Amino acid sequence: MLKKAHPMPNIKDILTISIILFSIIDIIGSIPIVIDLKKKSGHIDSLKATIVAGVLMISFLFIGEGILKLLGIDVQSFSVAGAIIILILGMEMILDRSFFKTDPSTPKTTSIVPLAFPLIAGAGSLTTILSLKAAYSEVNILIGIILNLIFVYIVLRSSDWLEKKIGKGGFDIMRKVFGIILLSLAIKLLKQNLFV
């Protein structure tokens, strides 16, 4: 049975929503990908990536389902599209191949694709936001999104420091491990949405 949504901010609900979104966004697990993207493009705009991801997530909270319906896209198809991009990112990390080509003249695009979408505001987080609307009020979900975005920004800003602490050997190992995790996540999303 679904909880009755509280119209006012509720600390317990905000905490629950924040933890759910934190586990779905998994910015800590994405650190090797962030470092890899920074190496390939030469620059990642942490603030831009966070703002774009935030705009996507907050927009999806209020008008996501309507936009998908307007375009004739169901939530499952949207999830499958995001899963395919995650699958390609995972393969890049494992095979040491570049499928996402970055134009040296426009390095800032990496901050949007694939970082802001689908890595931060991916199919998983966007569909989770739609699911949360059934049990929680929009104000609590909004606060949960903002708290996660603050944490995402801090991690993105600290990526150079984290790279120094991890080292090249540690980074290479993490890259392969997280590549497999990304492939697993993509396959899980595909299974959930293709075989329903």
- What does the main sheet amount to? none
Order of helices and strands: HHHHHHHH
The residue ranges in which pLDDT falls below 50 over 5 or more consecutive positions are 1-5
Beta-strand residue percentage: under 5%
How much helix, percentage-wise, in residues?
A: over 70%
Number of domains: 1
Kindly provide the radius of gyration, computed on alpha-carbon positions and rounded to a whole number of angstroms: 17 Å
Descriptive notes:
This protein is mainly alpha-helical and 196 residues long. It has one domain. 75% of the residues lie in helices and 0% in strands. The chain contains 8 helices and no strands. It has helices spanning 11-25, 31-41, 46-70, 75-95, 112-120, 123-132, 138-157, 159-194. α3 runs antiparallel to α7 (138-157). The protein is globular and about 50 Å long.
